[in-house]
Amino acid sequence: MMKKGLFALIVMIITLSISGISAHAAPFNVYTETSGYAAGIDNFLPTGYMGDYLDITMTDGASGAHSGSTCTYVDYTAAGSGGEGLTDGSGYHPLYWAGVYWQEPGNNWGDLDGGYDLTGSTVLSFFAKGVNGGEKVTFGAGGIGAPPPYGKGDTFSVNMPTQTLTTDWQQYTVDLSGLDMSHVIGGFKWAATRRDNPSGATFLLDDITYDVIPEPSSLILLGSGILGMLSFSRKKKKA
Question: Minimal CA–CA distance to 49: which of 11, 101, 87?
């Protein structure tokens, strides 16, 4: 019985160390599959179109996924055809950039109730690949609206340096260590500019998730705890 109890305690400590203390279990999906939001598998919607958004075509359900059966296809033409830029008597004045947020709930720009407490999440992970290779895209999350108690927006904001995509699936990670993840409404975003992509950018996204990577201090604590319990078990046997 002693051995079984010790084993159960060790398993519990390992589980807590890996999963962290979070209001939601890890991994916590932003996007993994077509209709994943409706099925309760995914937790954000790609509704936050920005910049010259008429230059964007996004298809949720493209083939050639990293895992599963489908992924998200993105085509940014860089044509400056319409969107949030100024329109006057001379026509539309392009911003020459565009992007999309995955939001909760959909179309939430910090003025709606919703979002998630992802305290304990230490990394945002996703997979991306270019259709032609050489596409330059910026990725990030958070940064929508004013945070509580001043508003209903994100409590964090993070942006990666611009990434140059290849034609192979690559995993990218965003370090969230030290950030306040207690209210997340902008779960993921991408943005691309005409300057970086004069002929546009076409790429695929898949398996966008929040996860936990144990910090070194947690692993040291875990090891110390296990060694302590094993030492205690040996002493009990000798007694």
Answer: 101
SS (H, E, C) the chain: CHHHHHHHHHHHHHHHHHHCCCCCCCCEEEECCCCCCCCCCCCCEEEEEEECHHHEEEEEEECCCCCCCCEEEEEECCCCCCCCCCEECCEECCCCEEEEEEECCCCCCCCCCCCECCCCCCEEEEEEEECCCCCEEEEEEECCCCCCCCCCCCCCEEECCCEECCCCCEEEEEECCCCCCCCECEEEEEEEECCCCCCCEEEEEEEEEEECCCCHHHHHHHHHHHHHHHHHHHHHHHC
Q: Reply yes or no on whether the pLDDT at 17 is more than 50.
A: no
Asked if 24 and 184 count as a contact pair (C-beta separation under 8 A), the reply is: no
In the predicted structure, residue 136 carries a pLDDT above the cut 60? yes
Specify the higher pLDDT residue, 69 or 15.
Answer: 69
Report the C-alpha gap between 193 and 166 in whole angstroms: 17
Query: What pLDDT sits at residue 11?
Result: 44
At residue 86, the pLDDT reads: 95
CATH number for the region 24-213 comes to 2.60.120.430
Residue pLDDT, tens place only, 223-234: 455 445 545 455
Distance of CA 236 to the CA centre of its chain: 47
| pLDDT tens figures, 191-200 | 999 999 999 9
| Residue ranges per structural domain of the chain | 1-20+214-239, 24-213
Which pLDDT tens digit goes with each residue over 107-117? Answer: 999 999 999 99
